[in-house]
Backbone:
């Protein structure tokens, strides 16, 4: 955390990501191929670092090539590893198909898909525009679906299985202030449960991770009056960090999770049990008298 009275610095820098202690052995993912959407920033960047540290061949995607390049350059400088990247939008099913094709063409396979790409903005739901609502639903729900379907089709056609990890959100008590993403993430959770059964004969496992309040630069989009209380969202009274989610993704994606499918692992410091989050700021109605 930053000094009292100043806005916090959210997240780990590249040097911290590269050196962060991990419970996993360094060759755990040797010979495996992982595709991580939203890999240029925040949780996606942390996962790219960890998967590369553990020996995986990594492809990242996102909308901004400069952010992807920054992640790749950091991994090269700190880990002496090369990763691949492609700028695209997961909202476009044709772009998704091209991304999955490129991953297979470049690496010869795909073992792990992490659907981390997404986003939202804080706003009172009554003021959502049609465009704003559709943008969040299209990215977080439809984009995740396009990625899952294309990966599954490749695995089916190759006669082999794979593992999908969808990054969602801590939706269990609703998310006032970001209702659009709550709707989208709930859709992903229940699509995951359905696909886990449908795709079990294909040896495809599908799971979710629901992060609580995690300290990444993505928190900077929220008003300061909201973000200064984020650490109070759970009974542990602090935010998680990006490596909490990265290590959870490795757990679900690899042999440690081989008997887990259709599950949503909540990593939130107990937020689903106790605490409250107001991404758009707490309305006066809910202030303690």
Residues:
């Amino acid at each position: 955390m930053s000094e009292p009275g100043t806005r916090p610095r959210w997240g780990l820098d590249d040097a911290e990501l590269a050196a962060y202690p991990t419970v996993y052995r360094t060759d755990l993912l040797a010979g495996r191929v992982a595709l991580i959407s939203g890999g240029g920033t925040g949780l996606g960047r942390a996962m790219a670092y960890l998967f590369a540290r553990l020996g995986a061949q990594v492809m990242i995607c996102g909308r901004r090539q400069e952010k992807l390049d920054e992640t790749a350059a950091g991994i090269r400088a700190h880990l002496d590893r090369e990763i691949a990247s492609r700028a695209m939008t997961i909202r476009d099913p044709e772009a998704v198909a091209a991304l999955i094709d490129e991953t297979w063409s470049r690496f010869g396979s795909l073992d792990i898909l992490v659907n981390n790409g997404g986003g939202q903005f804080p706003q009172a739901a009554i003021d959502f525009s049609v465009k704003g609502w559709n943008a969040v639903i299209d990215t977080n729900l439809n984009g995740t679906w396009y990625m899952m379907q294309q990966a599954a089709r490749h695995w089916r056609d190759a006669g082999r299985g794979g593992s999908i990890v969808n990054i969602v959100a801590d939706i269990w008590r609703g998310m006032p202030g970001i209702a659009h993403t709550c709707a989208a993430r709930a859709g992903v959770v229940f699509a995951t449960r359905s696909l886990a059964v449908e795709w079990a004969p294909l040896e495809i496992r599908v799971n979710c991770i629901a992060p609580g309040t995690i300290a990444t630069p993505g928190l900077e989009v929220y008003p300061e009056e909201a973000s200064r209380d984020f650490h109070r969202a759970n009974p542990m009274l602090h935010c998680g960090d990006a490596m909490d989610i990265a290590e959870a993704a490795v757990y679900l994606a690899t042999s440690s999770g081989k008997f887990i499918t259709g599950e949503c692992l909540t990593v939130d410091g107990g937020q689903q049990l106790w605490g409250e989050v107001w991404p758009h700021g707490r309305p006066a109605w809910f202030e303690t008298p």
Remarks:
- Confidence is low (pLDDT under 50) at residues 1-7.
- The first helix runs from residue 14 to 19.
- The helical segments are 14-19, 42-53, 65-79, 93-107, 130-158, 179-198, 224-227, 242-253.
